[in-house]
Structure formats: structure tokens, C-alpha cells
Amino acid sequence: MAEELCVQLVPLFQKLDLEKQQQVEQLVHHQHTKMHELIITPDSQNQLVIIAHGSVKMYSLDSNGNEKVVRALSSGDFVGETWLLGINNQNYFIEAVEDSDICIINQADFLALLKNSPEITATLLKEQAERITSLRKQTQLLSIVNISTRITTYLSQLQQSQGKASIELPFALKDVASYLGTTPETLTRKLKLLEKQGKIEYHLRKIKIKDKL
């Protein structure tokens, strides 16, 4: 069986024929990262980062140096397309949540690829629209004043996206709390209350939804 190409994990490249995928794969630099290792900082050169295996988190720092988690990425996800197109990364860090295999494409190589591949450009625009939708969902969550409602709405969204009653949080509890604009202590307390009410069962990152939230 042929070895899976890193770029085949990415929706951006999946609709390309094998020959074109192999051309893209030649641009890839492979990197193995350890848990908590920084992959991207605001000082890094502009790159497209593909998560081949593992998981990472994307976050910014507030004026007090506290993390604000923006996004969780796992196998097949990617980030950095806007950086490649000339928008400098001024705020974001990407850190491995666990030991991960990363694929990186540099800006100059990627721009040359886009000039010769209009189908990739079209797919890139579609992915960017979906990313904007994801950010809009987070903004809508943060606009919910009641923290209990914010948490149950988030769990319902995860259940819908994962398509099953037993869901898995995309990252550690403290990072989920940051994403939801609350503290780990408050999130833990609210989850325990939902469990006491018989609506969920949870252990670490795994949550089974037993009743309508």
C-alpha cells in the first residue's frame, strides 16, 4: 500500500489528482514536535502548517501575558494560509498539545504553487469562508452572558459536529475554558453540576450527553 502523503490529510489538497498532490508534497518540510513545543510564534517566517498526526493549539497573549485559546487543530487541520498570502502573524502562537508530526510549506513555494493551480486557490477561498464561520460561532458563544448557557451551547455544537452522544473536547479543560471566556474552576464546577443533574457524564476530555442540554 502506498504511503499516505501529508497533503492528502488536508481538505485544501484532497480534490487534486495524485500527480498534483505529489507536486505539492515535494514542497513539504516534515517536523516532529514534542508536547508543549512551540511551532509558530509571531517572529516565525510565514508558513502553512499542516497537522499530520497529533494535536496543537493556537492562542494569543493578552496584555497580562495570559493565553487566549483561539483554535484547536488535530490531524488533517491546517493554519497559516493568510500568513502565506502576505498578512503577517503579529499575535498568534501555535503549540503542540501532544507529540505531533507537522508538515510545513514556506511562503515562496506556496505562492508559486498558487500561480499554477487555480483549483487550489478556489478551495483555499472556501476553507477561509469556513474559518470565518468558525470564528463567528465563537463570537456568538462569548456574547452569551450566562456562563451555564454558554457551556451547554458549546457542548451541543460539539455534539452536532461530532455526530454522536459521546463527544471529546478538542483540547484540555483549561484551554476550553479560555476559548469560552471563563476559568477552569468555573467550567469544572458547571460540568459537575450538569453531571449531578443527570444530563452528562464526563471524565477528562470525554463527555457523554445523556439528556437534552
TrEMBL record:
Keyword terms: DNA-binding, Transcription, Transcription regulation
Keyword Transcription regulation: yes
InterPro entries linked to this entry: cNMP-bd_dom, cNMP-bd_dom_sf, Env_Response_Regulators, HTH_CRP, RmlC-like_jellyroll, WH_DNA-bd_sf
Listed SMART domains: cNMP, HTH_CRP
Domain called HTH crp-type: residue spans: 145-213
Single GO MF descriptor: DNA binding
GO cellular component: cytosol
Pfam family for this entry, one: HTH_Crp_2
Domain Cyclic nucleotide-binding: 38-131
Matching PANTHER family: CRP FAMILY TRANSCRIPTIONAL REGULATORY PROTEIN, REGULATORY PROTEIN YEIL
Protein name: Crp/Fnr family transcriptional regulator
Species of provenance: Limosilactobacillus rudii
